[in-house]
């Protein structure tokens, strides 16, 4: 049997997303403490997430643009962090004078929960970079997208304090760039 590349593209993208997840998991973490959450959302759930994104368009029209972009994905990798637990260096970057004061702070949620230990947020950024580095090595199309993560959180799919989504595709041209802003 002969297969056309398009016949196995969805499966290939899924395998790439899994390898991206492992690259993120093994990325360096502050003090070696791993509070990273990683999930893969299959193609079948993309429309649900895109519709949820459109519900936020009254506050930011770019949710529509990004929802339309997301619809071209074959899957979504989502990385999140629980940022409540400080690493104990009393650096003050969170805005508090000590980790003990940070831990006593009232937590509030807007789109994400905060405040967060800055080192946990840096860990998330390094993990995101490791994941998209892997996507570049493997030649799959990706983009780190904040608005997709907002919808994932609103749907209760993932519970992390802060998260970002990485839609994944394999097309002749990356479908997540050259996006038109909605008016």
Secondary structure elements and their pairing?
Blueprint: H1 5-25, E1 36-42, H2 46-54, H3 62-70, E2 75-81, H4 99-104, E3 108-109, E4 113-114, H5 118-138, E5 141-142, H6 146-154, E6 162-169
Antiparallel strand pairs: 1-2, 2-6, 3-4, 5-6
Helix pairs in contact: 1-5, 2-3, 2-6
Question: Can you give a write-up of this model?
Answer:
- The chain is α+β, with helices and mostly antiparallel strands.
- It has one domain: NADH Oxidase.
- The chain contains 6 helices and 6 strands, in the order H-E-H-H-E-H-E-E-H-E-H-E.
- It has helices spanning 5-25, 46-54, 62-70, 99-104, 118-138, 146-154, and strands at residues 36-42, 75-81, 108-109, 113-114, 141-142, 162-169.
- The strands form 2 sheets. A 4-stranded antiparallel β-sheet has the order 1-2-6-5, with helices on both faces.
Number of domains: 1
What CATH first level would be assigned? Answer: Alpha Beta
The count of helical stretches stands at 6
Structural class, by secondary structure, is alpha+beta
Strand content: 15-25%
Instruction: Give a count of the beta strands, DSSP E runs of length 2 or more.
Output: 6
Rg = 18 Å
* Unreliable parts: none
CATH architecture call:
3-Layer(aba) Sandwich
Q: Which H/E pattern describes the elements?
A: HEHHEHEEHEHE
Measured distance between first and last alpha carbons: 49 Å
Helix content: 40-55%
The strand line-up of the biggest sheet is 1-2-6-5
Instruction: Summarize the main sheet.
Output: 4 strands, antiparallel
Mean pLDDT across the residues is 94
What is the CATH superfamily label? Answer: NADH Oxidase
CATH fold field value: NADH Oxidase
Shape: globular
